[in-house]
Amino acid sequence: MILRNTYKPGEWINRKKLINFTFEGEAFTAFEGDTVTSALWAAGQKVLGRSFKYHRPRGVLSLANHDVNILMTDGLDTNIRGDVVEVKDGMTLHAVNTIGGVKKDKNSYVDSISPLLPVGFYYKAFHTPRKLFPFWESMIRKAAGLGVVNFDYPRILKRKRHSHCDLLIIGAGPTGLTAAYEAAKAGLEVTIVDENSHIGGSLSYDYGGNGTLAEQLTELTKKIESLKNITLCTGAYAAGYYPDHLIPIVEAGGITKIRAKAVIVASGAFEQPLVFRYNDLPSVMLGSAAQRLIYRYGVKPCNNGIVFTANDYGYRVALDLLEAGTKVLAIVDLRSGAHGGLHAIEIVKHGVKIYAGHCVYEALATSDKLKLRGAIICAYDDKNSVALTDNKFTIECDGIAMSAGWAPAGALLYQAGTGMQFDYGVQQFVPNRLPDGIFAAGKVNGIFELDQRIRDGARAANDVLNYLGKTSEKSIAEKHNGAAPSHAYPMVPHPKGKNFVDFDEDIQIKDFENAAKEGFDNIELMKRFTTVGMGPSQGKHSNMNAIRILAKIRGLPVEKIGTTTSRPFFHPTPMGHLGGRGFHPHRLTALHDWHEAHGAIFTDVGAWKRAAYYPQVGQTKEEAIQSEALAVRKTAGIIDASSFGKVEVHGTDAAEFLERIFTGKYINQKVGSCRYVMLLDESGVVVDDGIASRLANDFFYLSIGTSNAAAVYREMQRCQQMWQLDIGLVNVTGAFGSINIAGPAARDILAQITELDLSAEAFPISHVRESTVAGVQARLIRVAFVSDMSFELHIPMIQAPQVWSALVEAGKKCHCRPFGIDAQRLLRLEMGHFMPGVDTDGLTNPLEIGAEWAIKMDKAYFIGQRSLSILSKRPLRKQLVAFMLAPDFNGEMPLECNLVIDGTEIKGRVTSISYSKFIDRIIGFAYVAPAKNGIGSNFNIRTDNGSLVSATVVETPFFKNKKEA
Amino acid sequence: MSVLEISDMSTLERFGVKGTQAAKWLAGHDVSIPEYANTWILNNGETLVMRLGSSEFLIEDQVEGQMCKKLATDKVRIAGVYIVPHADASYLLAGSEVLNLLSEVCSLDLRESALQDNELVMTQVAGVSATVLRQQLNNETVYRLWCDGTYAKYMQHVLDEIAQELKGLIKLG
After folding, report:
1. B42 within 8 A of B34, measured Cβ to Cβ
2. How far apart are CA A894 and CA A798, in angstroms?
3. Angle between the A509-517 and A523-530 helix axes, to the nearest 10 degrees?
4. For residues A303 and A558, what is the distance between their CA atoms, to the nearest angstrom?
5. pLDDT tens digit string along B78-136?
6. Could you tell me whether strands B14-18 and B56-60 are parallel, antiparallel, or unpaired per DSSP bridges?
7. Across A599-750, where does the E strand assignment appear?
C-alpha cells in the first residue's frame, strides 16, 4: 500500500480488517470498504483497464461510476465496476477487453492503426464493397463489446418492489440531506436515494484542504438519523422518471419502484474532463476523483502532481492534494488572467506556481506507454481556444488532476419534462420550467457554493411543503455568485489528436470535426455518427463537451445546439434486474388436475393452460391428434371448454345492446334459440365471434373465444358506459365451466345423465336449454363447431369435475375419449369454420373471410358498420378460401403462414393447414387473390424449402366433399 | 406477531349481486350495506359486505355463517338485480412482513396511512385483478385478498414463493 495515507476522519475504509485478493494474477491487500480501484491504486497499480476501441491503457478517471475505464471480471460476473464495487476477500479479478492481460494487451496495436479507423468507420466499412461485408462483420463482431457474457451465470432473483413516500430526494449530498431534514421536520415521509455507498456527496471529499468539513457532514448525518420519517437508500440510483412521479430505484438486490407525491432532484453534477492530447493516460484524472481517493479511501493520488484547471475548483483540488502529501508542482489554469479566488492565496503560500492562461498541451507517457511521466505546458489563447506552443516546456510528474467544470446530473429532470435553459453565469444548463411536483436544488440547479447549496436544499424543501399544501415560508432561489464553475470551451487542439472527449468510445475532437464535415452537424445526428455518449457512461463526461465542440464548429451559441434526448434508464442496469421476478398469470380450469393425471400436454391459449392433446403410450403428437379427432367423427369425444369467455347480458335493453355490439340481429331472436355473434372494431376488422343464447326476453348468455374474452368484455363495458342502456353485464367466465361432448354417440351418452329430451325435434341445432346434468344445474347449447352432433354444457366451474366424470363414465361403452384443442382445431377445419385470430389478423374484415351472411347492414347501427359500408364498395384484395392438396401429395408439407405465390408476386398466405385422417387429405384455409377464389381454382403455396405446392379451392365442409367423392 | 402467514379462505361462502336495484334488494333481505363504493362493513359483526362499485356487492360469510346461503335461495328474477356467481380464490395475509410481500405484488400503497379503515381497493395483484382490504382480526392487522378462482394455483404459487423468501408460512384451507 505504497500510496496509502494515514487515517482521515470520515473515510470509508476499516483499517482494522485486511482483505486479500488478486488482480491479473498478482496478489494485493486492501482494507474493508476499499473499492477494487482504491485498493489497487493504493498499491501503486495504475493500469487498471483498456479502452474499448483503441485498447489504450486506462486508470482512474472519475472514481464515481461515471466512466467505464475500469471494468473487471471475477470469472463469474463481468463488467464489474472497479471504481465503486467493494473488494471482497478472495476475489480473483482480471480486466475485461484484453488479450494477454491489461499490461500486455495484444490488441494494443489497434491504437497505432487508429488513423485507419476514423469516425463512421463502421458505417463505411459495411457499405461497399459488398464482398468485404463478411470480413468486416467477423472483425467487428470479435471487437465489439467489453466483457464476455457468462452463459453459466446462476439465476439470482432480483426483487421488484413498490414503495411510496411523500417526498423522494435524489442525491444525499449537502443539498439533499438538508432538504430531507427540513421536509421531515415538517412531518413529511422522506426517502433519500444516493448512488454512493455512504451519504454526504461532495461533503465527503471536497474539502479544499479544510478537513473540518468532515465534521459538518457528521453533524448533518446525526440530524438525519434523528428523524424516523427519513428512509436512506444508499448504493442505489434513481434510474428514470415515469409519469406521476414513479421512479425506479436500482439497488444490488433489485429494483424498487417509488411513487412519490413530490420529488427533489439534488443529484449534483458530473465533473467534466479537460480535452488535451493523451488526457486518458493512467494518472490523469478528474480533480474530484483525486479528492475521493484522498478522503474516502486514504489514498494519495500521486507523489508529484500538476493541477490542470479551467475553473476555481482546481485550486480546491490542489489544496486537497497538498493535504494528502502530494507535491503539487504547478497549477495550470486555462483562463487568462485567472486568480483562483481565495484558495489561490493559500496555494501560493505553499509555494505552488500558478500558470494562468496556460494549458497542458500534451501528457507524456513512459516508453512502455503505460504510465504518465510528465506534461508539456504552453500558453493558451482563451479567446480563440488555441495552444501557443512557441514557449512550451515540460514538467516531470506522475499525476495530473483536471477540473474543467460540470455537467448537471439532470437526466431525470429532462425525462420529467423540465424545460432547461443555458445559464452563461454558470456555463451550464439549468432548470427553467419545472413540472408540477418536481423540484431541483444544488449543483443541478446551478448552485455551487456549499453554503448556498445548503440554503437551496432548505428552499426546495419549503417549496415542496407549499406544493403539498403545508404552510411554509416562501423562500427565493439564490443565484450563483462569482466565476463560472464551468469553462466555456475546455479544449486544447493538437495536430496529432488523441485529445479524448469520450473515454468510452475513444472519440477525439477531430472526430466531431469530420462528422460535421460529412453533414452530421445536428447534435442527434452527430451522436449517432460519432457514437458520443452511446457507451456505458451514457455521456456523463462527454455530452457537454460534445455540445460545446459542435457549437464552436457551427458558430452557434450552446443553447442553439441543445441536448440529446434523455431516456430511462439513465445508467446501465443489469438484465437480471430488469427481468426480476416475472409475473406470468395463468388460469386453470377446474378440470386441470384431471387432464394432468391423464397425460395431457398443455398449451397456452390467452391466459389459460389448455389440454392440447392426450398422447397414449407410444403415440406421437400427430397420432394422438388424429385419433382424438377420429373418435369425435366415429363415436364421441369430450373437451374441456371452460376457458371460453362467458358473459350474461341482463335487462330490458339486452337485445338492443347485442344489436349494437355485434353484426347480427337479436331483437327477434326467440327465447331458447342461439345465434352467431361477430364483433368488429370501428374500422371493420374482425375481433371475435361466438354464440348468443337467449334464455329469457331480457336475458342473453354469450359464449365467446378464449383469447379475446377479457378484451371483448371490456369493450362491452366501455360501450355501455357510452350508451347507458338498461342492462347489466355479468362476466361469468371464471365462475362457469364448459364441457363439449361431440360426435355421433354424443346424444346417447348425454342422455344417460340428464332427463332433458335431447331429440332433434325437442332440442335442434342452435338452441339452448336449461336442465340438470349429472345432478348439476346446466345450460345446454347445441352448437355445430366441431360436429353436427354436439352439446355444450355450461355448469358452475366448481362442479365441472362432477359432470366431466359422469360423461367419461357414461361414454365408456362408446369409447368416448377426451380431445384437446389441437384436435378441436382440426375438427373445426374439417367442418369449414374459420377462427378469428387464426384465420384472421389485425386487418381482416368479414368480407375477406366470406362472412357476409353474418352481417346485417340493414340494422340501424353496429360497431364497424360505417367502415364496412365503405369497404364493401371497394374491390377485395384477398379472400379466404378452403383448399385441399392433391390426394397423392407427398412433398414437403406446407405450414401455416407459408406464402401463396402467383409468379413472383405474393398473393396471400396459409392460415390453417392439417392432414385429416378422416378425410385422408391435406386441407386448409388460405388467402388468395379474389380472382382465384372459384371452386376448382388452383394456386401455389411456397413451402419453407422453397418448393411450390399446388392447392385446389374446394367447398366446405370438407368431409361432405369426401362423402360426395 | 408471526413473520408472515398466508391462509387460504377460498372455501368461505360468498354471494355476489349487482344492478341498479341491488342495494334495495339486499336491504330487503336485512343486509346492511356500506354507504360508499369501495368500502366494506361487517354485518352483525360477522358477515363481510363489500361494496365493489356503486351498484355491485360481494358478501362473504364466516365459517358457519348462513347469510350467503339464505340470499342464494331467492331465485326470483327482478329487473335491476343480477346475481354474480363467484368462484373466487381468497386469502388472508398476516404478519410483520405482510407489507413487504404486498409491495412485491401490488403497486398501490396499502399501509395503514394510505388505506383507510373500511376501504377496499380493486387493483392488480401479481398481474391479476384482485380486491384487497385491511382488517383487524384478534387485535392483529390482516389483509384480505380475492381474485378469480381460476387464478388460484398461480396466485398461491406466487404468494408461497415470496412468503418462503421472507421466511413466512402458508396455511391451507
Report:
1. no
2. 42
3. 120
4. 38
5. 999 999 999 999 999 999 999 999 999 999 999 999 999 999 999 999 999 999 999 99
6. antiparallel
7. 601-605, 608-613, 637-640, 645-650, 674-680, 686-696, 699-704, 728-731, 736-742
- What's the length of chain B? 173
Q: Which residues of A touch B127 (CB under 8 A)?
A: 583-585
Average pLDDT of A428-435? 97
Mean pLDDT of B159-165: 93
Shortest CA distance to A238 belongs to which of A261, A210, A266? A266
Q: What angle do CA A162, A167, A169 make, to 5 degrees?
A: 95
Helix (H, G, I), strand (E, B) or coil at B72: helix
Q: Torsions phi, psi of A164, nearest 5?
A: -140, 150
Q: Are A704 and A658 in contact (CB under 8 A)?
A: no
ipTM: 0.96
Cite the beta strand spans of A126-189 per DSSP E. Answer: 159-170
Residue type, A168: L
Please state, in angstroms and as integers, the Cα–Cα distance from residue A301 to each residue in A9, A295, A316, A397, A680, following that order: 18, 11, 15, 12, 71
d(CA B116, CA B110): 9
CB-facing half-sphere around the CA of A805: CA atoms within 13 A: 12
CB-CB neighbors (< 8 A) of A797 in chain B: 87, 149-150
Nearest to A160 among B104, B113, B149 (CB): B104
pLDDT at position A142, please?
82
CB B56 within 8 A of CB B39: no
Nearest Cβ partner of A583 from B79, B85, B127? B127
Neighbour count for residue A6 (Cβ, 10 Å): 7
pTM: 0.89
Residue linked to cell 443565484: A479
* Residue A784 exposure: Cα atoms within 13 Å on the Cβ side: 12
- List CB contacts of A522: < 8 A, sequence separation 6 or more: none
Place of cell 489561490: A344
| Cell output for A443 | 449543483
A732 contacts in chain B (CB < 8 Å):
84-85
Residue in the block written with cell 499525476? A399
Strands A254-265 vs A438-440: parallel, antiparallel or unpaired: parallel
Would you say residue A965 has pLDDT above 70? no
Residue A129 pLDDT exceeds 90: no
Three cell numbers, residue A331: 497549477
Sheet strands side by side (includes A386-396): A358-365, A372-381, A386-396
Interface test with B, best of A584, A730, A736, A770 (most B CBs within 10 A): A730
> Could you give the CA distance from residue A465 to residue A262 in angstroms, rounded to a whole number?
9
Report pLDDT digits (tens) over A737-769: 999 999 999 999 999 999 999 999 999 999 999
Tell me how many residue pairs between chain A and chain B have CB atoms under 8 A apart. Answer: 85
> Closest Cα partner for A469 from A436, A496, A491, A497?
A436
- Residue positions counted in chain A: 965
DSSP state of A662: B
How far is it, in rounded angstroms, from Cα A826 to Cα A74? Answer: 54
In this structure, how many other beta carbons lie within 10 angstroms of the beta carbon of residue B49? 21
The greatest distance separating any two alpha carbons of chain A, rounded to the nearest whole angstrom, comes to 114
- What distance lies between CA A249 and its chain's CA centroid? 14
Cα dihedral A338/A340/A344/A347 (nearest 10): -90
Report the C-alpha gap between A854 and A725 in whole angstroms. Answer: 24
List the one residue out of A271, A311, A360, A293 whose CA is nearest residue A541. A271
C-alpha cell at B150: 381460476
A162 pairs with which residues across the strands?
A257
Cis peptide before A129 (omega within 30 of 0): yes
- A791 grid coordinates: 352439446
Longest dimension (CA), chain B: 51
Interior angle at CA A52, CA A50 and CA A55, nearest 5: 45
Cell (9 digits) for A42: 493504493
